[in-house]
Amino acid sequence: MSNFHKALIFFVGFVSSIFFQISTASVVSTGDFNKDFFVIWSPTHVNTSADEQTRSLKLDQESGAGFASNQMFLFGKIDMQIKLVPGHSAGTVLAYYLTSDQPNRDEIDFEFLGNVSGQPYILQTNIFADGFDNREERIYLWFDPTKDFHTYSVLWNLHQIVFMVDMIPIRVYRNHADKGVPFPRWQPMSLKVTLWNGDTWATRGGQDKIDWTKGPFIASFRNYKIDACVWKGNPRFCRASNPTNWWNQYSFNSLTSTQRKWFKWVRKYHTIYDYCQDNERFQNNLPRECSLPKY
After folding, report:
1. Catalytic residue among 107, 136, 137, 289
2. Residue 111 annotated as catalytic
3. Which one of 5, 18, 241, 260 has the minimum C-beta count within 10 Å?
4. What is the distance between the alpha carbons of residues 202 and 199, in angstroms, rounded to a whole number?
5. Would you say 276 and 286 are in contact if contact means Cβ atoms under 8 Å apart?
């Protein structure tokens, strides 16, 4: 076993134990897909195990599929173990995201972009704040996400949004609202998961279309954990920092020193697109947050 993998195992175990100790009092998910979620569309393309602990979505020429949480949330931490579409998955998009239902929506997105067999999977992240997006980042995953389940997480609090893969931070979006940067902090969001045809743009800018002879395309889910403030119409409660809303406490206002090392590793070796480096797209007028600290 390499030193990298030894360090990774230690880091994941250490972080997981901390989160478990802190968050057991505020877990709002049951682990039962049928109790915590409802099907958004195409129930014939949604398959849930007999014990209701695992679920899969299917995409074919007839339809994609999706499901959404029964509750809406304002801040918290959400984990989902996902096994992505295997083989030739070009043109498919699996979206796992938080979204509000307001016209000027907030959204926190994981988007897994299918690939041609043998090519690395691309994970795109994006953030909508007050209806504005154009904040995409892309990385190559450092493992084959179709061979086994991996944990994809979002920590969303008053200070920052942290995207994580197997507890390794891959992206941080700081709350710089005091400097005029939009940040999702007022609108509650539901959790949604969808599998759909995105072959107009998803793989090499739409050059690689879905090969339906390789279908149906199936993604699987298990061991989700929603540890968040359930929206009951009172933003003040969800914005409070207390033992129940542990994610808003000061100790979670930035990355730890260990997390920063892993974040820098991802940025150096696996990031392939960062909107903050796309001067051509923004005509040398990058969004304001690009000149501010990332963590």
Report:
1. 107
2. yes
3. 5
4. 5
5. yes
The owner of tokens 């501010």 is 292
Amino acid at 120: P
In a 3-state reduction of DSSP, which class is residue 255?
A: coil
User: CA-CA distances (angstroms) from residue 181 to 73, 98, 129, 132, 178?
Assistant: 22, 19, 9, 11, 7
Structure tokens at 286: 């990058």
CA distance linking residue 259 with residue 268, whole number of Å? 14
Q: What is the pTM of this model?
A: 0.90
Write out the H or E segment, with its range, that includes residue 171.
Answer: strand 168-174
Any catalytic annotation for residue 107? Answer: yes
Neighbours of 283 (CB within 10 A): 8
Structure tokens at 177: 């609202």
Residue 164 corresponds to which tokens in the numbers above?
A: 């994580």
Token pair for 93: 């998009």
* Residue tagged active-site, from 52, 111, 137, 280: 111
- Taking the CA atoms of 66, 219, 36 and 100 in sequence, report the sign of the dihedral they define: negative
Task: Round to whole Å and give the CA distance between 69 and 190.
Answer: 6
pLDDT tens for the chain, residues 1 to 295: 555 555 554 555 544 444 433 333 467 899 999 999 999 999 999 999 999 999 999 999 999 999 999 999 999 999 999 999 999 999 999 999 999 988 899 999 999 999 998 788 999 999 999 888 889 999 999 999 999 999 999 999 999 999 999 999 999 999 999 999 999 999 999 999 999 999 998 888 888 899 999 999 999 999 999 999 999 988 888 998 888 899 999 999 999 999 999 999 999 999 999 999 999 999 999 999 999 988 8
